[in-house]
């Protein structure tokens, strides 16, 4: 848990801490990030875990992986690779498989509603999108990228190469 104010932690970095309803893996895979980014992640992840039905007695596992370039070098970005014991790429393949059975837009909406309850990859992506305030450098899109970016936003015009680069994880920066 993070209990202090941002001012006290200026310049320091922390692995993303566990929450009440979610657990995290350790450093070095859970790479140290700034206080501001850790706080934003804790808020969004706790809400994800609560809405997805997890509790202190039955927390969900979230696994980070080390990033290399850009914002990662200064602790301002984090990559989430696994949730609930499955990789983000696995969750996305499951999503595509289930929704691929739809014969029209109405069926697709119906299947998406159903799959959206159980698919923790989609749920964590949407929670980060809805509840997190991520960086948007001047002239760049909001820094939330993952397997669902083209369908769900925030940057639906994501290039094929950037989408492919985030096919197995979610990247956020703050
Ligand atoms: Zn990243």
Q: Would you write up a description of this structure?
A:
- This protein is an alpha+beta fold.
- The protein has one domain.
- The protein is 37% helix and 16% strand.
- The chain contains six helices and eight strands.
- Strands 2, 4, 5, 6, 7 and 8 form a six-stranded mixed sheet that branches. A two-stranded antiparallel ribbon has the order 1-3.
- Helix 1 (35-51) packs across helix 4 (120-131).
- The longest helix has 17 residues, at 35-51.
- It is globular.
- Residues 67, 72, 77, 79, 171 line the site of zinc ion (ZN).
Short description:
This protein is of the alpha+beta class and 174 residues long. It contains six helices and eight strands; from the N terminus they run βββαβββαααβααβ. α1 crosses α4 (120-131).
Structural category is alpha+beta
* First-last Cα distance: 19 Å
Count of discrete domains: 1
General form: globular
Which compounds are bound in this model?
zinc ion
The unreliable regions are none
What quaternary form is this? single chain
Number of strands: 8
Q: Mind describing the biggest β-sheet?
A: 6 strands, mixed
Helical amount: 25-40%
Q: What percent strand?
A: 15-25%
- Helix-strand string: EEEHEEEHHHEHHE
List the helices and strands and how they pair.
Layout: E1 13-14, E2 22-24, E3 33-34, H1 35-51, E4 60-65, E5 77-83, E6 86-87, H2 88-99, H3 105-118, H4 120-131, E7 144-145, H5 149-152, H6 160-165, E8 170-173
Parallel strand pairs: 2-4
Antiparallel strand pairs: 1-3, 4-5, 5-6, 5-8, 7-8
Helix pairs in contact: 1-4
């Amino acid at each position: 848990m993070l209990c202090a104010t941002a001012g006290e932690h200026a310049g320091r970095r922390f692995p993303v801490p566990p929450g009440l309803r979610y657990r995290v893996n350790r450093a070095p895979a859970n790479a140290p990030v700034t206080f501001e980014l850790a706080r934003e992640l804790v808020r969004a992840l706790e809400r994800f875990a609560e809405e997805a039905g997890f509790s202190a007695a039955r927390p969900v596992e979230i696994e980070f992986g080390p990033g290399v370039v850009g914002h990662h070098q200064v602790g301002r970005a984090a990559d989430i690779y696994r949730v609930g014991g499955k990789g983000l790429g696995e969750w996305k393949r499951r999503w595509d498989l289930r929704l691929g059975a739809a014969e029209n837009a109405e069926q697709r909406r119906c299947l998406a509603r159903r799959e959206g309850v159980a698919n923790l990859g989609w749920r964590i992506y949407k929670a980060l999108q809805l509840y997190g305030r991520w960086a948007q450098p001047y002239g760049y899109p909001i820094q939330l990228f993952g397997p669902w970016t083209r369908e769900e936003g925030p940057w639906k015009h994501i290039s094929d190469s950037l989408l492919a680069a985030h096919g197995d994880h979610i990247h956020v920066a703050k």
